[in-house]
Amino acid sequence: MAEFNKVVIFGVGLIGGSFALGLRAAGAVEEVVGFGRSPKSLQQALDLGVIDRAGINPAHELSDADLVLLATPVGQMPEIMARIVPYLGPETVVTDGGSTKGDVVAAARAAFGERIGQFVPAHPIAGAENSGAAAARADLYRERKVVLTPLPENSVLNVAKVRSAWEWCGAQIYELTPAEHDRVFAAVSHLPHLLSFALVHDLAVRENKELFFTFAASGFRDFTRIAASHPEMWRDICLANKDALLLELDSYRAQLDELHQALAAGDGRRLEEIFDTARTARRDWAEGKR
Amino acid sequence: MAEFNKVVIFGVGLIGGSFALGLRAAGAVEEVVGFGRSPKSLQQALDLGVIDRAGINPAHELSDADLVLLATPVGQMPEIMARIVPYLGPETVVTDGGSTKGDVVAAARAAFGERIGQFVPAHPIAGAENSGAAAARADLYRERKVVLTPLPENSVLNVAKVRSAWEWCGAQIYELTPAEHDRVFAAVSHLPHLLSFALVHDLAVRENKELFFTFAASGFRDFTRIAASHPEMWRDICLANKDALLLELDSYRAQLDELHQALAAGDGRRLEEIFDTARTARRDWAEGKR
């Protein structure tokens, strides 16, 4: 008997599809039901064996579901939450895969009301270059990090259920508060994306941009890889995490001001100090990753 | 009979060593003589067949040299130039591999005086993670770009000689003025390095830095790869190209101010516009590279 009798997934793309495949590969789920806005994606998820059935009416699928994953863009979550809450069984736990947490929690509080204890927010750290059900892989989360941001209203049992599902997928589980989560990801993910977009944009609007791009090499390539990310998705992430991102952007601008000052003054010692501290930290980080 | 009878290289590390190996592999040089500050590096270059001989006294090696490459850090070039100019033969052409050009040209004008026509500045765009003679490869410059920044005093013949040497190494040759070169590389190389160092430094000095580094993932990894670059070398590059780099830094700070404003105002349309322009330009660039 599998740990989860029935798992319902909203959004059968890379994130939701890989969650389904991971649970299935581990033998941790009996039945996976998928919902999605696009019939084509649902059909693809069926054809690829990502889901067992495409759901038709949430009202018929949720009362006996053990676990519901919201794996749609964050912007669609408030509407889906409002649609599903009335039909959740008393034991059903809902989680999400959104990359910002403060806004998702606010939407969940509005939609779940007194049932907010049934919603355990989460963020799987598994970006990938491809998207869609066809890109889903059973091992996407293997040895990847998943951050749970439990709410005070969550029971230990409900948090354990979500933790267990991600562990079946092979993930390493961490817990942060939603605010900690958003501050951390503003710094290590959202800000770098903003900075990378900014650099390429600054060049792209120049009349003689070809001259610049002609000589861009491997350093530029690495630095700007994330500037090829999806504009709409990153607009939404930036807006959703606006407050934390503005704080990080302010901190970074102060850092650039200091570098500007050191450079203008020809203060090589300070420049080298900053570069050296950065290199040491970057190396320590990279070695810890291995 | 090879095109170059004798090539003299100052600095037998990755840049100078690969130049020597490239010319030798192409059969374009009879004899390569190496000079270096470290006897150990010279011995290594000899053992690896990068050079034929280690030079002892520049006074004895330069009058019959066809080509001299200065492949040391830029900071050492003024001293080397002053030492070699008195001994150059009338046909000897000197070039360099420095990654900034305005400062190298200024040093060359001071050292070469009326013989400045014999100095043809160049910048091979071939960064690599490793350094030293042991990292040298005959194919390092194959299909890589080399920028010549000829001076008005250079004869067509002297420029052609330097161009030909790099072509033997398999490189694609471009020509810019020294000022154009420095502006372009400030934008596509020096600024990204500064920005990447700045991001890591901003995190590295926080008391709770471990929390941040724990959740840094692939986007952070790519963005900060160049923050593992050599601090002393990058201090020198930044100082050498200070004026152009400050201009680029100002332009970038203005770009960040605009993003800050759009974000603070919740102007999703402007954010998406900027991200979209950047993504399109990044994609076009990456496709052009293929």
Automatic annotation (TrEMBL), chains A, B:
The keyword Transport does not apply. Pathway: Amino-acid biosynthesis; L-tyrosine biosynthesis; (4-hydroxyphenyl)pyruvate from prephenate (NAD(+) route): step 1/1. Its EC number is 1.3.1.12. GO terms for molecular function: NAD+ binding; prephenate dehydrogenase (NAD+) activity; prephenate dehydrogenase (NADP+) activity. Coiled coil: none annotated. GO terms for biological process: tyrosine biosynthetic process. It is an enzyme of class 1 (oxidoreductase). It catalyses: prephenate + NAD(+) = 3-(4-hydroxyphenyl)pyruvate + CO2 + NADH. It comes from the Bacteria. Keywords: Amino-acid biosynthesis, Aromatic amino acid biosynthesis, NAD, Oxidoreductase, Tyrosine biosynthesis. SUPFAM superfamilies: 6-phosphogluconate dehydrogenase C-terminal domain-like (SSF48179), NAD(P)-binding Rossmann-fold domains (SSF51735). Gene3D superfamilies: 6-phosphogluconate dehydrogenase C-terminal like domain, NAD(P)-binding Rossmann-like Domain. Residues 5-290 form the Prephenate/arogenate dehydrogenase domain. Belongs to the prephenate/arogenate dehydrogenase family. This is prephenate dehydrogenase. It comes from Azospira oryzae (strain ATCC BAA-33 / DSM 13638 / PS). The lineage of its organism: Bacteria, Pseudomonadati, Pseudomonadota, Betaproteobacteria, Rhodocyclales.
